[in-house]
Amino acid sequence: MQASEKTLVYKQLAESNQQERIQEHLEQLIEGLGVESAKAQGLRSPITSLMHLRTSDCRVYLYVERHAALGLLKVGPKRLFVANVDSPLIEINPLCVLDFYVHESRQRCGIGLALFEGMLSGEEVQPSSIAYDRPSPKLLSFLRKHYGLHKYTPQANNFVVFSEYFSGARQRAENSSRKTRSIDAFSTPPRTRGLIAPSGLSTDTATDVGLKSAATEDESACSSQNENSGELNQQQVEGGPSTKTNRSHTVTTTTGARSSVDASLARFERQHQREMMLLQKSLSESQKKLDSLHVSNRSANRASSYALRRPF
Fold it and tell me: What is the rounded end-to-end Cα distance, in angstroms, of the chain?
């Protein structure tokens, strides 16, 4: 092995050892802050530990100053069932603040606000769109002071979801519905827009009928335009009016298109009525069979009871 290769191997080993030391130090910081947070909240066991982080999709934000961790903030998604004053019990999937702790010696120094703002920037969320797991009075006053959040409905699962969450969700739903309506309005063909399939008729068939009627209207309109242009030319030559003739042609073509659509609708209605009559007939036959079975069961029960009453 050459000297350059030995140097490269030693450098890689040093980097790996340094990464391992950093990882161990980070694990010790997280474990220590988790234990201190549990003590401050009066919990029997810490809710932030390496085992919990490795088996979940939670994320931890640390505030470190001169190789000393002074604050911890753990967040993660949760599926919750919550209720509001204006809405019944609903299911939501918000980002949740699961653990928030700042060392006692450095509280009220801006560390908590810096840690919380860093989390909001990293997760790209608003404070009102977050659920808070068993928030302490200090955390509630912190949210009220810096973000004006104070209205909430107590939940059975001890999570706090502020009223602004529901208003924001309603606004997002309205915006999405407006976008959907605008997309549908631009994507729907003009001839089939607002076409409703009658009973017994599929949407594709109804669309075909609408397209055929539209084509009929276009052809009739073109023919009427040609006839009108011919009559106008004749009027220019002869000098006589032709307004009544144009109106009669327009009424005739429109009536023909409407009559074709009405005929198709009547045909499908008759087909639907026949299907309903067949269904009612089958239901009546089934009811008769059930009645006959009930009668046979009653006769069998009477025969068995009579046989039991007879003396041996």
Answer: 110
